[in-house]
Amino acid sequence: MKKILKFILPVLIAFGFAGCLDINENVEVKKDGSGQLVMDMDMSQMLEMLQNYMSKEDLAKKGMEKMDTTIYMKDIVDTVSRLSEEKKQLLRPGKLHIKMDMDAKVFTTHMQFPYTSQDNLQKLYAAMSDGSLGNAKLFGGLGGDQGATPGGMDQFNGIYDFTAKDGMMAKKVNQEKWKALTNDPQMAQVKQAADMGMEVNYTTTIVLPRAVKSVDNPLAKLSDDKKTVTMKFNLIDVFKDPKEFDYKIEY
């Protein structure tokens, strides 16, 4: 997966592809504080466009081959010595599904993690942000030596502090982490994409057990019953103004 991801962004920049990636983050909180965190990434449109510029054989050399794989975290976390027992407990219920079919022009990832409390949701976000998933090679080598969650979401989520407790959920940019990320030489390509106006559609949907009292992000939309918050962003804009992704929801 890391080999694929390292290949994708330079190609997108070179050809000026826009709107080729869709990322959907869904958080469901039940009355007892349990729920699930789901991350879906659809790169099918990008795959179709790439096939106009490269042969199937050339794409295969970049790691883009037919794949339909489900990875269950419970089967592998106990084999990873560098993970703490607390993180293993958080990750065991999770699973990752990757589907790539060049002929059908399908390229999607689906990552799902149930949790038992909002405190565990907060810890789960932290684990996804600190590189634990990739660095531990939980995906059978898909993360590579440096580690990367599917979609590279660890780098994005890593600059935010996430808080979840009964009645409140918030994501706020951490200025020190943000500064460290902007100084990373590997981020030069992403900054170039931002300057070119490239778009990566990112939608956050949060389903809560009670009606929302307030939400401070101006992009937030509420459902009729005020229990569902939806925010749509251009992920690339985070490198222009990371605070655009900040939010605080009280319910």
Topology:
Elements: H1 2-15, E1 22-29, E2 35-42, H2 44-50, H3 56-61, E3 67-72, H4 85-91, E4 95-101, E5 106-115, H5 118-129, H6 132-135, H7 153-157, E6 160-165, E7 168-173, H8 175-182, H9 188-195, E8 201-207, E9 214-215, E10 221-222, E11 228-234, E12 247-250
Parallel strand pairs: 1-8
Antiparallel strand pairs: 1-2, 2-5, 3-4, 4-5, 6-7, 7-12, 8-11, 9-12, 10-11
In short:
This protein is α+β, with helices and mostly antiparallel strands. It has helices at residues 2-15, 44-50, 56-61, 85-91, 118-129, 132-135, 153-157, 175-182, 188-195; strands spanning 22-29, 35-42, 67-72, 95-101, 106-115, 160-165, 168-173, 201-207, 214-215, 221-222, 228-234, 247-250. It is globular, with a radius of gyration of 18 Å.
